[in-house]
Design brief:
By secondary structure, the chain is an alpha/beta fold. It has helices spanning 17-28, 40-52, 67-81, 104-129, 152-174, 192-199, 204-213, 223-234, and strands at 8-12, 32-37, 56-61, 86-89, 134-139, 179-186, 245-248. Helices cover 47% and strands 15% of the residues. The protein has a seven-stranded parallel β-sheet, with helices on both faces.
Length: 255
Protein backbone atom coordinates (compact mmCIF):
# COMPACT_ATOMS: atom_id res chain seq x y z
CA UNK A 1 0.00 0.00 0.00
CA UNK A 2 1.01 3.62 -0.50
CA UNK A 3 3.06 3.16 -3.68
CA UNK A 4 1.89 6.57 -4.96
CA UNK A 5 1.09 8.10 -1.56
CA UNK A 6 0.44 11.83 -1.77
CA UNK A 7 0.73 12.05 -5.54
CA UNK A 8 -1.94 13.69 -7.71
CA UNK A 9 -2.85 11.48 -10.67
CA UNK A 10 -5.06 12.38 -13.62
CA UNK A 11 -6.44 9.64 -15.87
CA UNK A 12 -8.17 10.37 -19.17
CA UNK A 13 -10.98 8.06 -20.16
CA UNK A 14 -11.12 7.46 -16.43
CA UNK A 15 -14.81 6.67 -16.21
CA UNK A 16 -14.72 3.17 -17.64
CA UNK A 17 -12.71 0.11 -18.58
CA UNK A 18 -8.96 0.45 -18.17
CA UNK A 19 -9.20 4.03 -16.95
CA UNK A 20 -11.58 3.31 -14.10
CA UNK A 21 -9.39 0.41 -12.95
CA UNK A 22 -6.38 2.73 -12.93
CA UNK A 23 -8.26 5.39 -10.93
CA UNK A 24 -9.37 2.88 -8.31
CA UNK A 25 -5.89 1.39 -7.95
CA UNK A 26 -4.23 4.80 -7.70
CA UNK A 27 -6.64 5.75 -4.93
CA UNK A 28 -6.02 2.51 -3.04
CA UNK A 29 -2.29 3.18 -3.26
CA UNK A 30 -2.59 6.66 -1.75
CA UNK A 31 -2.94 9.02 -4.70
CA UNK A 32 -5.45 11.81 -5.04
CA UNK A 33 -7.20 11.11 -8.32
CA UNK A 34 -8.68 13.28 -11.07
CA UNK A 35 -11.11 11.17 -13.10
CA UNK A 36 -11.10 12.86 -16.51
CA UNK A 37 -13.71 11.83 -19.05
CA UNK A 38 -15.88 13.22 -21.81
CA UNK A 39 -18.90 11.92 -19.84
CA UNK A 40 -19.19 14.07 -16.69
CA UNK A 41 -21.82 11.89 -15.00
CA UNK A 42 -19.71 8.76 -15.47
CA UNK A 43 -16.61 10.56 -14.20
CA UNK A 44 -18.48 11.68 -11.08
CA UNK A 45 -19.72 8.12 -10.49
CA UNK A 46 -16.15 6.75 -10.40
CA UNK A 47 -14.95 9.67 -8.27
CA UNK A 48 -17.85 9.16 -5.85
CA UNK A 49 -17.04 5.44 -5.57
CA UNK A 50 -13.45 6.31 -4.66
CA UNK A 51 -14.55 8.86 -2.08
CA UNK A 52 -17.00 6.41 -0.53
CA UNK A 53 -14.10 3.96 -0.13
CA UNK A 54 -12.14 6.59 1.78
CA UNK A 55 -10.05 8.00 -1.06
CA UNK A 56 -9.84 11.47 -2.54
CA UNK A 57 -11.07 12.01 -6.08
CA UNK A 58 -12.59 14.66 -8.31
CA UNK A 59 -14.32 14.44 -11.69
CA UNK A 60 -12.98 16.45 -14.62
CA UNK A 61 -14.87 16.92 -17.86
CA UNK A 62 -12.46 16.59 -20.77
CA UNK A 63 -12.64 15.97 -24.50
CA UNK A 64 -9.03 14.98 -25.20
CA UNK A 65 -9.22 16.40 -28.73
CA UNK A 66 -9.93 19.91 -27.38
CA UNK A 67 -6.73 21.95 -26.99
CA UNK A 68 -8.32 24.60 -24.77
CA UNK A 69 -10.13 21.88 -22.85
CA UNK A 70 -6.76 20.45 -21.82
CA UNK A 71 -5.60 23.78 -20.44
CA UNK A 72 -8.84 24.15 -18.50
CA UNK A 73 -8.74 20.59 -17.16
CA UNK A 74 -5.14 20.76 -15.93
CA UNK A 75 -5.81 24.17 -14.35
CA UNK A 76 -8.86 22.70 -12.61
CA UNK A 77 -6.84 19.78 -11.22
CA UNK A 78 -3.89 21.88 -10.06
CA UNK A 79 -6.23 24.48 -8.61
CA UNK A 80 -8.19 21.90 -6.62
CA UNK A 81 -5.38 19.49 -5.70
CA UNK A 82 -2.37 21.80 -5.76
CA UNK A 83 -0.23 20.05 -8.38
CA UNK A 84 -0.07 17.30 -11.00
CA UNK A 85 2.36 14.41 -10.54
CA UNK A 86 0.99 11.72 -12.85
CA UNK A 87 -0.90 11.85 -16.13
CA UNK A 88 -2.20 8.71 -17.80
CA UNK A 89 -3.22 9.29 -21.41
CA UNK A 90 -5.68 6.42 -21.46
CA UNK A 91 -8.64 7.65 -23.55
CA UNK A 92 -8.96 5.92 -26.90
CA UNK A 93 -11.34 4.66 -29.56
CA UNK A 94 -11.30 1.84 -32.12
CA UNK A 95 -13.12 1.93 -35.45
CA UNK A 96 -12.77 -1.10 -37.69
CA UNK A 97 -11.65 -0.63 -41.27
CA UNK A 98 -8.91 -1.67 -43.69
CA UNK A 99 -6.48 0.45 -45.67
CA UNK A 100 -8.86 0.02 -48.61
CA UNK A 101 -12.22 0.83 -47.05
CA UNK A 102 -11.56 3.04 -44.01
CA UNK A 103 -13.22 6.42 -44.51
CA UNK A 104 -11.16 9.57 -44.12
CA UNK A 105 -13.60 10.82 -41.48
CA UNK A 106 -13.13 7.68 -39.37
CA UNK A 107 -9.35 7.86 -39.88
CA UNK A 108 -9.25 11.46 -38.70
CA UNK A 109 -11.57 10.77 -35.76
CA UNK A 110 -9.30 7.93 -34.61
CA UNK A 111 -6.16 10.04 -34.93
CA UNK A 112 -7.78 12.97 -33.14
CA UNK A 113 -8.55 10.90 -30.04
CA UNK A 114 -5.76 8.34 -30.00
CA UNK A 115 -2.80 10.43 -31.18
CA UNK A 116 -3.64 14.14 -31.08
CA UNK A 117 -5.21 13.67 -27.65
CA UNK A 118 -2.05 12.04 -26.32
CA UNK A 119 0.13 14.81 -27.75
CA UNK A 120 -2.06 17.49 -26.16
CA UNK A 121 -1.96 15.63 -22.86
CA UNK A 122 1.81 15.24 -22.91
CA UNK A 123 2.29 18.92 -23.71
CA UNK A 124 -0.09 20.08 -20.99
CA UNK A 125 1.47 17.73 -18.42
CA UNK A 126 5.03 18.81 -19.19
CA UNK A 127 4.06 22.43 -18.67
CA UNK A 128 2.41 21.57 -15.35
CA UNK A 129 5.13 19.20 -14.07
CA UNK A 130 8.44 20.66 -15.19
CA UNK A 131 8.91 22.60 -11.98
CA UNK A 132 8.80 19.50 -9.80
CA UNK A 133 8.93 16.41 -12.02
CA UNK A 134 6.41 13.67 -12.60
CA UNK A 135 5.38 10.70 -14.68
CA UNK A 136 3.42 10.55 -17.93
CA UNK A 137 2.08 7.14 -18.95
CA UNK A 138 0.64 6.69 -22.43
CA UNK A 139 -1.62 3.74 -23.14
CA UNK A 140 -0.62 2.38 -26.54
CA UNK A 141 -1.36 -1.23 -27.53
CA UNK A 142 0.30 -4.35 -28.85
CA UNK A 143 -1.22 -3.00 -32.08
CA UNK A 144 1.38 -0.27 -31.89
CA UNK A 145 3.95 -3.03 -32.48
CA UNK A 146 2.08 -5.44 -34.75
CA UNK A 147 -0.80 -4.87 -37.13
CA UNK A 148 -4.16 -6.25 -38.17
CA UNK A 149 -5.71 -5.76 -41.62
CA UNK A 150 -9.01 -4.52 -40.17
CA UNK A 151 -7.72 -1.94 -37.68
CA UNK A 152 -5.60 0.29 -39.90
CA UNK A 153 -6.36 3.60 -38.17
CA UNK A 154 -6.13 2.17 -34.66
CA UNK A 155 -2.81 0.44 -35.43
CA UNK A 156 -1.33 3.57 -36.98
CA UNK A 157 -2.45 5.76 -34.08
CA UNK A 158 -1.03 3.41 -31.44
CA UNK A 159 2.25 3.10 -33.33
CA UNK A 160 2.35 6.89 -33.32
CA UNK A 161 1.89 6.91 -29.55
CA UNK A 162 4.84 4.55 -29.23
CA UNK A 163 7.34 6.92 -30.84
CA UNK A 164 5.67 10.08 -29.54
CA UNK A 165 6.37 8.68 -26.09
CA UNK A 166 10.06 8.19 -26.85
CA UNK A 167 10.46 11.68 -28.31
CA UNK A 168 8.79 13.29 -25.31
CA UNK A 169 10.87 11.16 -22.93
CA UNK A 170 14.11 12.27 -24.57
CA UNK A 171 13.06 15.91 -24.52
CA UNK A 172 12.20 15.83 -20.82
CA UNK A 173 15.40 13.96 -19.98
CA UNK A 174 17.61 16.36 -21.92
CA UNK A 175 15.91 19.35 -20.32
CA UNK A 176 16.40 17.75 -16.88
CA UNK A 177 12.73 18.25 -16.03
CA UNK A 178 12.55 15.13 -13.90
CA UNK A 179 9.57 13.98 -15.96
CA UNK A 180 9.50 10.38 -17.15
CA UNK A 181 7.41 9.37 -20.16
CA UNK A 182 6.61 5.72 -20.86
CA UNK A 183 4.09 3.65 -22.77
CA UNK A 184 2.04 0.60 -21.86
CA UNK A 185 1.03 -1.87 -24.56
CA UNK A 186 -1.93 -4.03 -23.55
CA UNK A 187 -3.36 -6.90 -25.53
CA UNK A 188 -7.10 -7.26 -26.00
CA UNK A 189 -8.81 -6.56 -22.68
CA UNK A 190 -12.49 -7.30 -22.28
CA UNK A 191 -13.72 -3.70 -22.03
CA UNK A 192 -16.50 -1.87 -23.85
CA UNK A 193 -13.95 -0.83 -26.49
CA UNK A 194 -13.30 -4.47 -27.45
CA UNK A 195 -16.93 -5.54 -27.02
CA UNK A 196 -18.20 -2.76 -29.27
CA UNK A 197 -15.60 -3.49 -31.94
CA UNK A 198 -16.47 -7.21 -31.85
CA UNK A 199 -20.20 -6.42 -32.02
CA UNK A 200 -19.70 -4.67 -35.36
CA UNK A 201 -18.51 -7.95 -36.93
CA UNK A 202 -20.68 -10.64 -38.50
CA UNK A 203 -19.65 -13.25 -35.92
CA UNK A 204 -18.43 -11.60 -32.67
CA UNK A 205 -18.10 -14.90 -30.82
CA UNK A 206 -15.85 -16.40 -33.48
CA UNK A 207 -13.68 -13.28 -33.39
CA UNK A 208 -13.28 -13.44 -29.61
CA UNK A 209 -12.47 -17.17 -29.75
CA UNK A 210 -9.81 -16.48 -32.37
CA UNK A 211 -8.33 -13.70 -30.24
CA UNK A 212 -8.23 -15.91 -27.15
CA UNK A 213 -6.45 -18.66 -29.08
CA UNK A 214 -3.57 -16.27 -29.78
CA UNK A 215 -2.79 -15.84 -26.08
CA UNK A 216 -0.38 -18.54 -24.83
CA UNK A 217 -1.53 -18.07 -21.24
CA UNK A 218 -5.03 -19.12 -22.31
CA UNK A 219 -6.92 -16.08 -21.09
CA UNK A 220 -7.28 -12.40 -21.81
CA UNK A 221 -5.93 -9.74 -19.50
CA UNK A 222 -8.18 -7.92 -17.05
CA UNK A 223 -8.23 -4.12 -16.62
CA UNK A 224 -6.42 -4.52 -13.28
CA UNK A 225 -3.48 -6.23 -15.03
CA UNK A 226 -2.91 -3.08 -17.06
CA UNK A 227 -3.53 -0.85 -14.04
CA UNK A 228 -0.69 -2.49 -12.10
CA UNK A 229 1.72 -1.81 -14.98
CA UNK A 230 0.61 1.83 -15.00
CA UNK A 231 1.00 2.01 -11.22
CA UNK A 232 4.63 0.86 -11.45
CA UNK A 233 5.44 3.51 -14.05
CA UNK A 234 3.69 6.19 -11.99
CA UNK A 235 5.53 5.27 -8.80
CA UNK A 236 9.07 6.07 -7.67
CA UNK A 237 9.91 2.40 -8.17
CA UNK A 238 10.46 3.28 -11.85
CA UNK A 239 12.44 6.46 -11.24
CA UNK A 240 15.10 5.47 -13.79
CA UNK A 241 12.65 4.22 -16.42
CA UNK A 242 11.80 6.55 -19.30
CA UNK A 243 11.12 6.09 -23.00
CA UNK A 244 10.29 2.46 -22.27
CA UNK A 245 7.56 0.12 -23.47
CA UNK A 246 5.77 -2.16 -21.03
CA UNK A 247 3.87 -5.00 -22.69
CA UNK A 248 0.93 -6.64 -20.90
CA UNK A 249 -0.25 -9.30 -23.32
CA UNK A 250 -0.33 -12.82 -21.86
CA UNK A 251 2.53 -13.86 -24.13
CA UNK A 252 0.91 -12.72 -27.39
CA UNK A 253 4.02 -11.01 -28.82
CA UNK A 254 6.41 -13.75 -27.71
CA UNK A 255 5.24 -16.02 -30.52
Amino acid sequence: MGRVQGKVAMVTGGAGGLGAAQCRLFAREGARVAVADIDPAAAEAVAAEIREAGGEAMPVTLDVTDERGWDKAVAEVTGEMGRLDVLVNNAGIAILGSAEDMSLDDWRKTMAVNLDGVFLGIRAAIRAMKGHGGSIVNISSIKGMIADPMTVAYDASKAGVRNLTKSAALHCAQERYGIRVNSVHPTYVMTDLVRNAAASLDDPDAFLEEVLAKHPMGELCEPEDVAYAVLYLASEESRRVTGAEMVVDGGYLAQ
